[in-house]
Amino acid sequence: MKLLLCSLAIFASVYSQKLPNYIVPCARNKPDFHQCCIDNGVKAIPYILKGDRAQRIPPLAPLKLPKVAIEANNNFRITLTDLVVSGIDTVTLKDVVFDFDKNLIKVALMMDYLTVVAQYDIDGSLIVPLQGKGPANITSIRPYIEYEVDFSIVQKDGKEYMNVEKDRLQLNSQEAYYQLDNLFGNPQLSAETNKILNENAKDVGKELNGPITQTIRTIVTGLITGYLTRVPLDMIFLKE
Ligand SMILES: *[C@@H]1O[C@H](CO)[C@@H](O)[C@H](O)[C@H]1NC(C)=O
């Protein structure tokens, strides 16, 4: 999937040099490091969801994003504007791994649901032709999200910092609902097309879940940038 625009502007990065007090560091060389990261991550989530101006993290429940644009292939593109994303506060942190041998972060998350309500503009074909603009609701039920980041370690002013190199996100949802009002500017054709999309949710999910996948990716990358890449590594992961 080709990413056209990722609305990261809201997470503008400024060096703050310090973790907020609701994120408790873990000692990298202790045997309980993995569990410590999970436990402290779980405890931090309610604070993270409220947003944190000092870390440039917007409120996440709900989250508002100006724009997400996806071009899955030459036959399909969708642009969403004025997004309101709800359900992020139903998140459960399933796992988090910081692997300093592979320079890899792995995060597994589950949500009860995730809904994106926005204005859509779609053009393309998935099973059926899709064309038009109007209000949209894309909902994923019990999404399970696996997110991986390859990082490097960079030196700034004599201190080590984490730097995001590449990221990958996989989303599997148990059910998905798509509602694209006013397709083709024709209420009856729109209703019929929406019915077909929902009957074939599994087949069209890879493309139609694109905005959800991209939104989550924007959030998690923003959190990593906000909390992890602006604070010296030895203040996030203690060496004891
Ligand atoms: C979006 O769609 C879901 C699933 O159909 C529904 O439960 C939810 O109420 C809708 N949300 C809005 C804001 O329309």
UniProtKB/TrEMBL annotation:
It comes from the Eukaryota. The keyword GTP-binding does not apply. Residues 1-16 form the signal peptide. GO terms for cellular component: extracellular space. The keyword Electron transport does not apply. Keywords: Biological rhythms, Signal. One of its GO terms (biological process) is circadian rhythm. PANTHER family: CIRCADIAN CLOCK-CONTROLLED PROTEIN DAYWAKE-RELATED, PROTEIN TAKEOUT-LIKE PROTEIN. Belongs to the TO family. This is Hemolymph juvenile hormone binding protein (JHBP). It comes from Popillia japonica (Japanese beetle). The lineage of its organism: Eukaryota, Metazoa, Ecdysozoa, Arthropoda, Hexapoda.
